[in-house]
Amino acid sequence: MNDDELKQIWQQQPLRTPDASPQQLVAAMQKHASQFRHIIEARDIRELVACAVVVVIFGIFFFNHGSQVSRLGDLIVIGSAIFIAWKLIATRREHRPAPPGATTIESLRVELESVRAQSRLLGSVLWWYLLPGFIGLVISTWGGLPVNDPGAMRVMIPTYIVMTLVFIAVDWFVYRLNQRAVATQLRPLEEQLEAMLRSAETGEPVAEKHAAKLRPIVLSMKASDKIKPVEFSVAFWQLAIFGVPGIVGFWFFWIPGPTFDDNAGKTNEPRPPAMVQAVFTGETNRYSAVAMKVVERFNAGDYAAVQKLYNSNMAKTFPPEKTATFYGWLATEFGRVEKFNGPTGKGYFGQSEFQLHFEHGELPMSLALDADDDISGIYFKTPSSASAKFKLAVRHFFSWRHLAWLPFFVLGGLLYSWLMQNTVKRAVGISALGIHLRKGHTLILWGEITEVRLFKLLHIRNLELVKESGEQTRMHWTPLERHSEVAAAVEKFAPVNHPIRKYLSLLRRTPPK
Amino acid sequence: MNPPPTDEHQFLQLVDGNRNKILRVCRAYAWNSADQDDLYQEILFQIWRGLPALKEKQFANTWLYRVAINTAISFVRKRASRLDRVVHFEHADLTRTIESRQTAEENPEDRIADLYTAIYKLDSLEKALVTMFLESLSYEQMAEVTGMNVSHVGVMLHRAKKKLSGLMKEQASP
């Protein structure tokens, strides 16, 4: 076939009419073009919203954390979120696409610069994205260590170690994911663009390995009658059964911190200068009288009146709002005081101690008075017996303040399930040709898969489909898909001795007899 | 500053006059009809965006190819970077291919299918040059579209045509 014949069949070929006419597209594009800048800005807004969420959450932590060190950590996290949003937006704005009508070489140069920038950004993700936030989180967490309370320390240190290990694991995972994206997507793309640019500038051919091409499907005629894949779909609720409890599980991990790190049980007051080291018999009356007043005003719910019993130093450190919050918490947790005994001896820092019998438990209350019978220190000691401590912890664990977070975790679980359903390369079909992914739009031929590896993360099982070149495609293969139909499809269609066959046991609901 | 709005009449005139050329570029770069439609819409969108900046109307033809080829190259690369580990697949295309292979006599549809299959195996730059060659553009026009110098266009096109011819012969042989 000569050049003219080729041109003739090319120019006279019948062409399929696209679904949308230019007129329809104009209407859509008029809207699209007018929104174009908004779309670009919308991507920036996405970063800003993510940043705002972090700022709000850690802003709340900042105002609630008692420890200055924790507050410093919160500020570092907030600062790093702002920096990340700025860096992403600035990098994006720095590398705009070439204008329509640019030559191929100009277009390739702009695209190459953009890919290099992305590559640099992801390559250095540890320094600008992960590390500042990690440092902030670690400082925020460890800064809340109750150093004055050895009992709580024993509980908190292992908890904080676990939390720190979780932070490290998450950061390591994100880091590896980014490095993998650089190695498997951006570097090859960069090399490919460099090769194409070099070729366009010098006229030299592009090396075969860099040629961007989508390969045509080489069909086996035998397979043509079996082309319809056996399809498997996973409903949203099926994913949610696993996803929601999984995310709610984080709530259980997260709650022990606020439960055991709660400062509501004590006032954290500095040791009063006029501390009464010992209580003499002659003085018990004045202590009992003040303790009685505290109990009466507490039972009446008049916390402002309790605060009026404080001396000037205490009143300054614990203003009415703070005092009301503390006694409100005490009333919620333990109820009213039914009776009290005492003074029963020396309590906190040698202060005079009373035993308070609440509706829901008992607490020792230590009281220090100054020379004017004003309260210079008050301390409620959490229960010392193991069973009482356990009861308190359980009640505290399931308090409304903690349960209020639960709906957010449930919503998080639903979001996770939705993301799983929409973003993963789930096998939606298996045919004589291979494994169909992305709702059947794409296909990995059986012959292309030279090795299969299993990758497990919690209940999620992935199969890494490895090609001869070493390229990997991760296919989700959750327990939800471990049913006999999938196994039957693989058994029916996968070639004999195909590496995927060694994972058939994962697909069986019941082990073979 | 925002660019001036696109003249709808000018846009429709340009697209209507070059509709088949754009569709052929789409078919050369996208294997299945869904991708072809996506690419067609993307090219039209880029024309719509860039048209207000087109000052010299006599160069509209070259300009249109620039937009179409650059958009197509970028489209293929984006698809490839996301999906190069998998093969695009469409039942209707497969059925057509199987049916055409089962027909004993060669017809124009087979020849065009063979031509596309061969073009498909070229790299993006070669594909661009071959497409423009088949559209009867001169070397100078191809150089204007790509930004390459004319002699490089000649060398690369010669090489691409040779490769294309080899691929078509390979397909024709039983």
Description:
The complex is a heterodimer of chains A (513) and B (174). Chain A has 513 residues and is of the alpha+beta class. Chain A is built from 17 helices and eleven strands. Chain A has helices spanning 3-11, 22-34, 36-64, 68-94, 104-123, 125-142, 150-202, 236-254, 256-260, 284-299, 303-307, 312-317, 320-334, 386-397, 400-403, 406-423, 484-493; strands at 230-231, 337-346, 352-358, 361-369, 375-380, 427-430, 434-437, 442-445, 449-457, 460-467, 472-476. Chain A is elongated, with a radius of gyration of 34 Å. By secondary structure, chain B is mainly alpha-helical. Chain B is 75% helix and 1% strand. Chain B is built from eight helices and one strand, in the order H-H-H-E-H-H-H-H-H. Chain B has helices at 8-29, 33-50, 60-83, 91-102, 108-120, 124-134, 139-146, 150-172, and one strand at residues 87-88. In chain B, helix 1 packs across helix 6 (124-134). Chain B is globular. Chain B starts with 7 loop residues before the first helix and ends with a helix. The model of chain B is unreliable at 83-92 and 101-105 (pLDDT under 50). Chains A and B meet through helix 1, helix 2, helix 5, helix 7 and strand 8 of A and helix 1, helix 2, helix 3, strand 1 and helix 4 of B. Strand 8 of chain A pairs antiparallel with strand 1 of chain B.
